[in-house]
Amino acid sequence: MRAPILAGNWKMNKTAAEAVELVKAMQPELATITSVEQVVVPPYLAVPDVSRLCSGTPLKVGAQDLFWEPKGAYTGEVAPNMVAEFCSYVVIGHSERREYFGETDESVNRKIKAAFQAGLTPIVCVGERLEQRQAGQTDSWVAGQVRAALQGLSATQVAALVLAYEPIWAIGTGLAATDEEAERVCGAVVRATVAEVYGVQVSEAVRIQYGGSVNAENAYAIMSQPNIDGGLVGGASLKAESFVAIVAATAKAKGLA
Ligand code: PGA
């Protein structure tokens, strides 16, 4: 069975001091839910403090991005080994990076390879825009993003990474995909695409998260779906109470509570 994984992407929220407070508020309850892998993804400047707090606890730390070059004259960027000093996960290809910061399928692919080289586990985001959904292009678009992201990766790498299906129209809007539709895309599109390229064994091993307006109320129904192995949560991960409730709902939904 795939171990469920719930990650909280804090985006550009929380100073280092606020991040420490938030983690301290979450930790006592999170420590009792070890059946779900838990990850917090703070902004870079909060990562070292959060990582020190999480050391030796079940809570893992991720970064929101990285650059693929190992070092050099790249003002403003953060290298894979700098991330790996503090993190075990890194989010790559979030739709906000694709939309506002020029991330492409090609840069996503380079970053995934660089993440693996540094010993990080990538959480790779894919998802369609509203116009694409309305035009009936969801499946072909998402399958294309998955193929492009995974180009040139080994079967072992693909089995080890995490894919996050995040329909862009559901992010930060309060409009989550229905459980059935989230399950359909995660299973019949994302997992099926991995199966086509890497075979069923790899596709059964890879973990697929759903993201987009997951909250304490809808988490149980979404996480109960067989092809959804967890969530990438934005807004609702910024409060200890709701993040803990989502992790607990995931454990329950997977029969692990
Ligand atoms: P949201 O964000 O939970 O606030 O919709 C999800 C994400 O962007 O990962």
How would you describe the overall organization of this protein?
With 257 residues, the chain is an alpha/beta fold. It has one domain: Alpha-Beta Barrel (TIM Barrel), CATH 3.20.20.70. Helices cover 45% and strands 15% of the residues. An eight-stranded parallel beta barrel has the order 1-2-3-4-5-6-7-8, surrounded by six helices. α1 (16-30) packs parallel to α2 and α5 (105-117) packs across α7 (138-150). The model has no long low-confidence stretch (mean pLDDT 97). The structure holds 2-phosphoglycolic acid. 2-phosphoglycolic acid binds next to β8. Residues 9, 166, 171-172, 211-214, 232-236 line the site of 2-phosphoglycolic acid.
Give the gist of this structure.
By secondary structure, this protein is of the alpha/beta class.
Q: Stretches where pLDDT falls below 50 for ≥5 residues?
A: none
Summarize the helix and strand pattern as letters: EHEHEHEHHEHHHEHHEHEH
Largest sheet: 8 strands, parallel, barrel
Query: Radius of gyration from the CA trace?
Result: 17 Å
Describe the secondary-structure layout.
Blueprint: E1 5-9, H1 16-30, E2 37-41, H2 47-54, E3 59-63, H3 80-84, E4 89-92, H4 95-100, H5 105-117, E5 121-126, H6 130-134, H7 138-150, H8 155-160, E6 162-165, H9 179-198, H10 200-205, E7 207-211, H11 219-223, E8 230-233, H12 240-253
Parallel strand pairs: 1-2, 1-8, 2-3, 3-4, 4-5, 5-6, 6-7, 7-8
Bound molecules: 2-phosphoglycolic acid.
What structural keywords apply?
257 residues; alpha/beta; TIM Barrel; eight-stranded parallel barrel; 45% helix; globular; binds 2-phosphoglycolic acid
